[in-house]
Design brief:
mainly alpha; globular; single chain; 17 helices
């Protein structure tokens, strides 16, 4: 095999493309640390953009049905199937969900309003656009529920758990990026002022104050994805301990899946009934639940840089999925997917806005809630910085982290309801 790789230029390109999937996240993280424009754009958006550019320039395209294409697609699938299950627990370990018990009423109403808006938009959009011939529409609805209540992590987890065709995932992600990015740019460019006018209510209840000095405590803007000294930290072994725990949870999920297969609860593989079945739905739910439980232990919660390491795996997955994007497929049913995504953004946002107005939630809190739910917590700090109101950062992060926790469950519930 080694000689074949050396003598076959196409196989060399296969290896280089796979290496690029690992190298690009390092470059993205470096830019995020060094460049302010990269911090405003966000690592996830840069990962999607890098993957799509790889696809548009044919970097990852190989001769159809060739040995190289088969080898590359197998390694692609392996990397994707490993990246997401490892990322989920790592990103949940540092989440102090006990903060949820301390959250104030307006933060709760903003979270509930955002989730209700997304659910209504997804369900109504499903019935509006179901005649457009969208492939695997019930699964697409499930993934959109996950990504717009949690984030990319939930989208990827649901796609893997439900066995969604990778080309469908790439198309949905492409439209999600194309349609969500202008909304982010709108907010960063001053759109939050419009929400302040529409929701002219005080956000004083979301301020964290020091009871002794009566001064507001402002969290640092970039404490969500803090990659500084990540690869040079003296505590790197503790970060690796978190990775080991994540691997253990993955093993438990795989073991549970095999156990359920042996008990006959999970159906056997039709092509090979004797082959143990690794049911991705069981694995994803298991690692999510174990990650949540682990986050309640202080020693696990204090493991350094586990969120950032989880984000690194998400960046790898995002680049791979985006690189599978085929612009030739944006036609027919694909246009229906774009219309469905746009409907969720507009309809869900409007319902969220109306509910926030009903419960007197302020404009800044609404803005960070929208970003936390539609784009995930890493997008909250740039928006907070643009608004100049760091006091809503904590509320935005809490909302986004709760979205991470419930997004997968909501997505699965939507799938079974609609299917």
């Amino acid at each position: 095999m080694g000689e074949q790789i050396i003598t076959n230029p196409t196989m060399v390109r296969v290896v280089l493309c796979l290496a690029l999937y690992i190298l690009l996240p390092f470059i993205i993280v470096h830019l995020f640390i060094r460049r302010k424009w990269a911090q405003k754009v966000g690592t996830v958006v840069m990962a999607y953009a890098a993957g799509i550019l790889m696809a548009l320039f044919g970097v990852v395209h190989f001769p159809v049905d060739s040995m190289e294409e088969l080898a590359f697609s197998q390694w692609q699938a392996t990397m994707m199937n490993i990246a997401v299950p490892l990322a989920i627990p790592l990103m949940l370990f540092n989440c102090d969900f006990k903060l949820w018990t301390k959250a104030l009423p307006k933060t709760i109403w903003s979270l509930v309003g955002g989730i209700v808006g997304v659910l209504i938009a997804v369900v109504s959009g499903f019935f509006i656009f179901r005649s457009r011939g969208i492939p695997e529409f019930d699964k697409v609805a499930s993934m959109m529920t996950g990504i717009y209540t949690g984030g990319t992590m939930n989208f990827n987890a649901l796609g893997a758990a439900l066995g969604v065709d990778k080309s469908v995932m790439a198309i949905v992600l492409a439209f999600e990026m194309v349609l969500t990015t202008p909304y982010i740019i709108f907010i960063l460019g001053g759109g939050f002022r419009l929400f302040r006018r529409l929701l002219p209510y005080s956000d004083e209840t979301t301020h964290s104050t020091n009871r002794h000095s009566n001064q507001s405590i402002e969290a640092p803007v970039h404490d969500v994805e803090d990659y500084g000294r990540m690869f040079r930290s003296n505590n790197w072994y503790l970060t690796l301990a978190g990775l080991g725990l994540s691997i253990l949870f993955l093993a438990v999920g795989a073991g549970l899946s095999i156990l359920l297969w042996k008990m006959g609860i999970i159906p056997a593989n039709a092509e090979n009934p004797e082959k143990p079945v690794l049911n991705e739905l069981v694995i994803i739910l298991t690692i999510t639940t174990l990650g949540l439980i682990a986050s309640f232990f202080k020693k696990v919660r204090e493991l350094p840089k586990t969120f950032e390491l989880g984000m690194f795996f998400i960046l790898v997955f995002s680049i791979i999925v985006a690189s599978m994007f085929d612009y030739h497929s944006i036609q027919g049913s694909s246009v229906g997917i774009g219309a469905f995504v746009l409907w969720i953004i507009l309809c869900g946002g409007l319902i969220h806005l109306l509910l926030c107005r009903l419960f007197h939630v302020g404009g800044d809190l609404f803005t960070v809630s929208q970003i936390a739910l539609l784009c995930s917590p890493p997008f909250v700090p740039p928006v907070v910085g643009a608004m100049g109101n760091k006091r809503v950062l904590i509320s935005g992060l809490v909302i986004g982290l709760i979205g991470y926790a419930v997004g997968t469950y909501l997505g699965i519930a939507i799938y079974y309801i609609l299917s």
